[in-house]
Amino acid sequence: MWRGLRRQVLAGALVLAGLAAIAPDAWASITPTVSLDQSAGSAAGATANLGVDLKFAPTGSDSPHTMSLNLPPGLLANASMGGGACLAAADLTDATCQVGSGTVTALAFGTIPIPTPVSFDLVPPPAAGDLAGLAVNSSGTQIGSTADIKVRPSGDPGGVGVTIDFVLPNALYGVPISISEINSTFDGLRYPTTCPSTPQNFSVAVDSYADSTVQTVTAPLSVSGCSALAYSPAFSVTATRDSADPEVKLSTRITQPAGQAPSRSISLVFPWPALAPNIASLHSLCPTLSSGTCTSVGSVTATSPLYPTPLSGQAYLSGSLSGLSLVLVFPSPFPLTLTGAVDLVKNSATFTGLPDIPLTGLDVTLNSGSNGLFESTCAVSSGSATAILTDQNGDKSVTVPGPFAIAGCTPTGAGSGGPGTGGGQATGTSTVSGSGIAGLPSGHPSLRFRITQSRHAAELTAATIELPAGLRFRGHGRTGITLTGATLKSLRFTHGHLTIALRHPVRSLTITISPAALIESAALKAKAKTLTHLNLTVITTNTNNKHTTIHVVLRHFAL
Predict the structure, then answer these.
(1) How large is the average pLDDT for residues 149-172?
(2) How far is it, in rounded angstroms, from Cα 326 to Cα 339?
(3) d(Cα 461, Cα 110) in Å, to the nearest integer?
(4) Which of 341, 335, 302 is nearest to 318 (CA)?
């Protein structure tokens, strides 16, 4: 297996051949054990050497075959060594890419122990999707195949972390060997930033040539000083409104210095009405991301000091109307899926369970255009978002403001979409007026409003209604829904919204929704007498198939 063995093996080949003739034919077993040497340090988030002593106690002529080292979440190697050169080309004569060293002891013919010094080198990934490769180096010569270094994906039972897969040989130059021990030191591992009362385990899964049954052994990894880690992330926001529609391109950026604790949870809250959810973006909702047919609503880029290049992924709107999620998906070699729960009432997205991977930058950009998640009327063209962040260990939380002004808003706030105020407000081509709501304290709500197209605008052909929080449609046909000034063609209930299609285009109509068509939540009924306003959204469609989103603030609570 190793170059240092060759001379000894060949020199004694005749003698060993005699031993081989009388060696038992039956292969027996291995009994693996693992222990860790943390004498170099155990400080959270710091880099330290870690000793790993693996013993197999082979009997007969058996030997370990496939072996996986499963590092606990947060225990990471530095893949950016050499500025990324180690991942581009292998050079076993250059110590720059050496990540460890040790001694491998093999039993030739199952009886003669031969210890051989080796080093471990970071090399290019041996297969697509791998983070890197690990070569066993004996005096500049690679022995055996390159081990795969993979990042375990989100949802893995072992947590997001690193696994190193080896295939160990059982013969060298035609002479059978049994590996009895691998005593190694891995250099400069970055330690986790969580300090659980029950330590996480470093685990090894191994089988043998005689027995394919996988045996798993573990050793606890001690981590100390989590509360001493600095945690001071910064947050910024930029927003740009489209020139031809109200949708907004929104970018958020979270940064922090290398060496700080990474975040375990991030909650982003955006100000309303400066930024409002674009209900039309629900057309991009993808219930099943694994289908491969989802439409991206944005992109994400992460920068880590442990990887030489930025990591890029896509953002998707997933889930259902009752449980929307903004999902950030990274491809291999970091197969991570970060899921943020969307709260339309709070205008927020909250990501929890983020992996223990240090990031100096996390940038999320949400598209504008037809699938843009946010829009602005420009009536309010600036505001301050808020990031609420908690560190990996859960003992530090910070709240960071992110003030911004919406680029592309005209001084007068002109443009399609806008807030109604009960008395009515023009929104480019559309106006909502005469809006009001009644019956909330009694649990029998009713709603009425009028939509009017401006004098030179194309006529209306349809309207989609998103009710205020706490109200929902019964979804039983047209019962309780009355149109004045227009003839109904069809009704459609989709994701809790009502779309009304008109038989003939009109310039204005009044929509009345009675208690027969509405259901009120107990929470809304309980606070009905103290309400000052409710938010209604109306999306109109004209004969040119142009959609206009109107945000109406209901302040009239009697019809």
Answers:
(1) 94
(2) 6
(3) 85
(4) 341
Give strand ranges (E) for 367-487: 374-375, 382-391, 397-407, 419-420, 425-427, 430-438, 446-453, 460-466, 471-473, 481-484
- pLDDT band for 379, please (50, 70, 90 cuts): confident
Predicted confidence band of residue 338 (pLDDT cuts 50, 70, 90):
very high
SS3 (DSSP) at 410: coil
Confidence grade of residue 1 (pLDDT, cut at 50, 70, 90) = very low
Give the closest residue to 246 by CA, choosing from 499, 557, 543, 540: 540
- For the stretch 338-341, contacts whose Cβ atoms lie closer than 8 Å and that sit 24 or more positions apart, written own/partner, are 338/154, 338/300, 340/266, 340/268
DSSP state for residue 224 in the 8-state scheme: B
Q: Which residues fall within 8 angstroms of residue 517, CB to CB, at 6 or more apart?
A: 473, 474, 476, 479, 480, 481
Rounded to 5°, the CA angle 184-186-191 comes to 135
Identity (one letter) of the amino acid at 267? S
Q: How far apart are CA 57 and CA 48, in angstroms?
A: 29
- What is the SS3 assignment for 416? coil
Distances (CA, A) of 156 to 161, 163, 167, 282, 300: 9, 11, 22, 30, 22
Phi and psi at residue 291, to the nearest 5° = -65, -25
Taking the whole predicted model, whether its pTM rises above 0.90 is answered as no
Q: Mean pLDDT across the stretch 499-505?
A: 92
Q: 459 to each of 279, 410, 430, 462, 512, how far by Cα in Å?
A: 21, 26, 10, 10, 20
Residue 493: pLDDT over 70: yes
Nearest to 38 by CA among 28, 47, 49, 23: 49
User: How many other β-carbons are positioned within 10 Å of the β-carbon of residue 523?
Assistant: 10
Residue 322's nearest CA partner among 491, 155, 497, 479 is 497
How far CA 113 is from CA of 9, 105, 109, 253, in Å, comes to 11, 6, 9, 57
| Higher per-residue confidence, 147 vs 444 | 147
- Amino acid 101 reads S
Sign of CA dihedral 37, 40, 44, 47: negative
- Give the sign of the dihedral formed by CA 503, CA 509, CA 515, CA 517: positive
Radius of gyration of the chain (CA): 32
The confidence score (pLDDT) of residue 344 equals 85
Mean pLDDT confidence for 249-262: 97
197/361 Cα distance (integer angstroms): 30
